[in-house]
Specification:
With 318 residues, the protein is an alpha/beta fold. The chain has a domain of 183 residues: 3-Layer(aba) Sandwich (Rossmann fold). The protein is built from eleven helices and twelve strands. The strands form two sheets. The chain has an eight-stranded mixed β-sheet, with helices on both faces. Strands 2-1-4-5 form a four-stranded antiparallel β-sheet, with helices on one face. Strand 7, helix 7 and strand 8 form a beta-alpha-beta unit. Helix 6 packs parallel to helix 7. The two termini are 28 Å apart. It binds adenosine-5'-triphosphate. Adenosine-5'-triphosphate binds next to strand 1, strand 2 and helix 1.
Length: 318
């Protein structure tokens, strides 16, 4: 297994109380696999990504669990050891490409410097590899794009440059947190296609975070659905979307816009996620669940197998 998250719990401590951001999250990614994490805002997707990358802020506390990368627990890694992991073995792409780019350096030079650092090649060779890297992310006329500053590029082009940067080491795992959310639909499709192509070609596993099940359907072989800091359903994407077991997955699926009628507004899931400072007993989705039974509000269901490769945390599936 490339990455195995076991029972991970994370809290944020502040003057207004303690926020339980993750509670007993378990996930795994095989070499070369694309796993989607999907869930509403605040469900803990980004905190999961930051925990893997060792980038949780000072007000965060890991209160339990392990993040095993090739068997090594990243949560106990020393600062020095991170230099060979973060940005090298584990690459990252976030929603806003400008955060990963130097605003006043031409993109070719930025890429060349990263390539030189990773591979120890000459300046000239790094320059050549930088143009090749731009070509690989399907940037037309890579020679002239290499001479441009990030602000001269469109959002989609910038995200391609960031993907080229992230893939240059090359990483074994790429963590992508909503990388296409800010892009128009056509560019979004192109970037998803590119990510799948690079993952297949290089054998890079991808952890893809999104609030959009449609994106998961397009890209990910497996999916983990998160709700209020917990994983409530996992399985092969095709099976989960065809026959969701957890009522929350079902609700998310039915909140997707109707492709046949684009005028139809997005159907929001009724109710609100629980206050992360005061989590109720029992199943956290119960207050919004139209299928709940008495037991749901009393006892918390754990993530259990429902078939050979599917798991869910729901009493109705037992
Ligand atoms: N730095 C922080 N300090 C305090 N609480 C935080 C911090 N970062 C995240 N949280 C809390 O942790 C919980 C999970 O947040 P997270 O950002 O992982 O959600 P998400 O699923 O990525 O949502 P979104 O789609 O909006 O990015 C939320 O309740 C959030 O308010």
């Amino acid at each position: 297994m490339l990455l195995e998250i076991k029972n991970l719990s994370v809290e944020f401590r502040g003057i207004r109380g303690t926020v339980q951001a993750l509670k007993g999250v378990s996930l795994s990614i095989e070499e070369g696999e694309i796993l989607g994490i999907v869930g509403e805002s605040g469900s803990g997707k980004s905190v999961t990504a930051l925990a893997i990358l060792g980038l949780l802020g000072k007000n965060a506390a890991v209160t339990g669990g392990e993040v095993l990368y090739r068997g090594r627990n990243l949560l106990t890694l020393e600062k020095k050891a991170w230099t060979t992991i973060r940005g090298k073995e584990i690459g990252m792409v976030f929603q806003e490409p400008m955060t990963a780019l130097h605003p006043t350096m031409k993109v070719g030079r930025q890429l060349a410097e990263v390539i030189r650092r990773h591979r120890g090649v000459s300046r000239r060779e790094a320059r050549r590899l930088a143009v090749a890297a731009l070509e690989e992310v399907h940037i037309r006329d890579p020679q002239s794009v290499a001479e441009k500053y990030p602000f001269e590029l469109s959002g989609g082009m910038r995200q391609r440059v960031v993907i080229a940067l992230a893939m240059s080491s090359p990483p074994s795992l790429l963590i992508a947190d909503e990388p296409t959310t800010a892009l128009d639909v056509t560019t979004q499709h192109e970037i998803l296609k590119l990510m799948r192509e690079l993952s297949e070609k290089r054998g890079t596993a991808v952890l893809f975070i999104t609030h959009d099940l449609g994106v998961v359907a397009e890209l990910c072989r497996r999916v983990a659905v998160m709700y209020a800091g917990e994983v409530v359903e996992t399985g092969p994407t095709a099976e989960v979307l065809r026959a969701p077991v957890h009522p929350y997955t079902w609700a998310l699926l039915h909140a997707l816009p109707d492709l046949a009628d684009p005028q139809e507004p997005l159907k929001a899931i009724p109710g609100e996620a629980p206050d992360p400072r005061a989590r109720p007993a029992g199943c956290l989705f119960a207050p919004r669940c139209h299928k709940k039974v008495a037991r749901c509000q009393r006892e918390k269901p754990s993530l259990e197998p429902v078939s050979q490769n599917r798991h869910t945390a729901c009493w109705l599936a037992r």
